[in-house]
User: Fold this.
Amino acid sequence: MTVLKIKALKGFKDILPDEVTLWKYVEDTARDVFRRFNFSEIRLPILEQTELFARSIGEDTDIVEKEMYTFVDKQVTMRPEATASLIRAYIEHGLYIQKPVQRLFTIGPMFRHERPQKGRLRQFHQMDIEILGSENPLVDTELIAMGAMLFTELGISVDLELNSLGCPKCRPSYRARLLAFIESRLDALCEDCKRRSVTNPLRVLDCKKSYCREQVEEAPSILEHLCPDCDVHFSHVQEGLQQLGVEYSLNKFMVRGLDYYCRTTFEFVTSDLGAQSAVCAGGRYDGLIEKLGGPKGGPGIGFAMGLERMVLLLQLRENAAFTRSDLELFVIGLGEKGEQLSYGLVHEMRGQKCRVAMDHEGRSLKSQMKQANKAGAKYVLIVGDDEIEKGTGVLKDMETQQQQEVELTCSALLEVVKKH
Assistant:
């Protein structure tokens, strides 16, 4: 019989147990930081109506045109990002009625049919964080500062880049000037940029091709075309960041790939993964809530962080602090009586919220000690015929290598194991 080896699809990846430790470290640290800033978690479905993303992200964006996984016959799509889904839930359940300003976050998989690369897969995972219902620039500052705090606590080195995209009042005049600039250099641009020059000229500034970036190096900056309201708003954002001690630099080329952004936009970038790339990006999207059927003029701001890239950055540090096991005890039962007593004792300790493991294959003492060491157990308990006769087991501290005799009861073991 021919054995068929089936592998994961291209762009999809298994997250193995050793990696899950890192993922959990990132998620737990993030949840702790978000809690301090009074955010609540929301969990969203993976499938949404296709129209939700076409209306929010924009029909002329690469995501909607080329990258979404859509079931055409049902007109449903696997979510390519979380903001639209979160706002749909915010509107559908009337969360804006319950509390005028909502602070929400969600963590989960997203799906885009783009070319897989380092840290970017077709099924990827994001943390999405949003503040809905406030247009105060101090909210922008607080959200960005929270992102900076999370990276600091994770020990990941990033740089913050900042821009403003203006609003529907000030963007048309800038768009006209930018379009004139692009048309003067159109022949030197790639085919995607030529197409974008018609549908969305701002996206030309965001092209990653080096020869296109050279052509737009002297493009006009939108910061020179902000209306008075947007100019004041952006000034207050910068003043707030300075007050909180968050360092940043201005980047006039940062326009983001989604149509709904306005005013403040930002990215946390790193060069540790090769070419400089964003590990967190976001911005303000005043008007999107109303566009999707919510309250008129509903403001919002948020950002998304890619978990795959954050885990890659942690792996580069090779720090055992977030790869250590939390296994508290490994019990070695020697002989039939030793195994039988250990089996019941292990179950009793698990009922007392202690993480315990034991071997069921009858391996030698030496082999099981290696197994316990590899598992990162804090303690090892040895139970053989002699120990059962005395009523005490040999408990070994795997860090200090010190041994002591402990009564073979759940309470006596917990007193020692839970002490540290």
Summary: The CA atoms of residues 165 and 263 lie 5 Å apart.
